[in-house]
Structure formats: C-alpha cells, structure tokens
Specification:
6 helices; elongated
Length: 159
Amino acid sequence: MTNIDALTPNQDERVMAALSHVSALLPMIGVIAPIVIWATQKEKSQYVAFQSLQAVAYQLSMIAAWFIGMGCYMLSFFGTFFALPFSDASQSASPLFAIGFIIPFLVFGAIFIGGFFFVIYGVVGTVMAFQGKPFRYAIIGKRIERFMQPKQDQDMVAN
C-alpha cells in the first residue's frame, strides 16, 4: 500500500497535478483536462493520477451541484410566477407574497456564491499540488485514495 502523502513528486508531476486542479476555473468544460491528464499519466505517476482523479471527481460534483442549484432556481422562479394568477389583486401585496419574489434572487445568489467557493477551493488545490504538498478535497480525497488502492490492500484494510 502506497501512502499518497509519502510521495515526492518531481517538477513535471507537480505541474500536471496543478493543471488538473486549475481547470476548475473553466466550469463545465474544465473537467476534460483532468480526465485527459489522468488517462495519460495514471501509469507514470501515482501522485498525478491521484490529484487528477480527485480533480475529476471534484469538478463532476461541482457540475452536479450547479444542476441541482439551477433546478431549485427554476422551481422557485416558475413557482413564483405560477402563483401570480392566484393572488388577490384588489388587496395590496402581502409581505409573504413579496418574499416569494425575493426567493429566486436568493437562490441565484447562493448558486453564484457557491460556485465562487468551488473555484477558490480548486485554486487552493492548484497551489498545494504545484508546491508538491499532499492535498485532498474534504470529502472526495479519502474516497479517491481508497479507490486507487489495489484490491489486496483494500481487503487487508477491511479485515
């Protein structure tokens, strides 16, 4: 069992690992770079394979979060406008109805802020990988490390 933290990458490995993380700056299409890096480097360097596979998983989770967020935005947006015919036009707008108009903007703002933090965390991964320091994304890192272990190592850990 190879410990990812014990690996000392050379300059080329650090650059390839950093490139796979920095591609998070290009949401949606940026996932292509770490896939290509992983496919071409997985046999050459365990450090690059781990960092690029981790970047793939992170960016796919970013894309999934974006789709979920946009689904929530569309639901709140259309929900607000489908509720318009049922409002009582003779009365002044109630505060509850006004909040209904604010919710889509709040959801969209949360998507924007969440995307910003996703990108910043990817840049942190870029810097750490370029410096050759061990870097793991919060939830994804340990799972990718377990995925990369050979089968006999996984059986020994399970026992």
